[in-house]
Amino acid sequence: xSEIESYQPGTVDLTLPGTPVxxxxxxxxxxxxxxxxxxxxxxNIRNRNTREAYGRAAGAFLRWCEDRGIxxxxxxxxIHVASYIxxxxxxxxxxxxxxxxxxxxxxxxxxxxxxxxPSNPARSVRExxxxxxxxxxxxxxxxxxxxxxxSIDTSSVIGLRDCALIAVMIYSFARIEATVSLTAEDFYPxxxxxxxxxxxxxxxxxxxxxxxxxxxxxxxxxxxxxxxPYPKTPLFRFRAEHRPPRGAGVKRDSxxxxxxxxxxxxxxxxxxxxxxxxxxxxxxxxxxxxLRLLREYPREPFLAAVAEAARYGFTISTVWSG
Length: 322
Prior knowledge:
Elements: H1 24-27, H2 30-42, H3 48-67, H4 78-88, H5 94-113, H6 142-150, H7 157-172, H8 176-180, E1 187-190, E2 193-199, E3 205-209, H9 212-225, H10 256-264, H11 269-276, H12 280-296, H13 299-312, H14 316-321
Antiparallel strand pairs: 1-2, 2-3
Helix pairs in contact: 3-5, 7-9, 10-12
């Protein structure tokens, strides 16, 4: 028996947060109808927060219908939706009520297109009017923003990161999700100034020029974190230090014997370069042996052996032993 067929009416309630259950009205739609109902939340809605909010709204409405004796989804009429919306007045704010109605409209549209119900009972129901001219999010004044930024200890990479992150939100009014999604290449020069590229909700890309103070904060952080060679890496990293992404490679220090050899015999530098191309392990062994031979034997025989090895592509140990 499939998972959808195993659901029993009355065992499901989307109004309980975190409970993966279904209302009885949805279960009575049958296997095909129930699958279409589930696909509305899983296939049609990509944002997790929206999916959870719509799940609670749909569950609350369907339970309200069950309490009033409605046994089938097709029995729901516009008057039922209107009565439900009216019952929410005084309990929730107007934006929440509008969200509930938007969920019902979209859900029944999805069921109508899938030929599960004949019509959309929520389509004709009017929503409460609500308009906002001033946002509810408090905006920092210039003095408050300066006090906040100056209070951050920027003696470490962590402090520079935090300062740059807060500066992006202050100077661009970006959402936190768009800010933490920035990569190093989203801060770029164009037309003699720097810009930032914000990936907003709905796949929208917002490009805007940087304030000169924001440029300073970002430049200081990027330089301290060492992000310049890695444009694809996240701009604001969890770790203080930068770790190159897999495949980017790590620049290794030169062999300690190399500097001593070149200082004593500069003419063997081309041969050392050829040795290093054969691999770090091969080069390390050869350089160590060359330094020992240079210290133990006269200079002229040593240089002659190096020249012979370079001519035939051998290591100096092969020539010396021969």
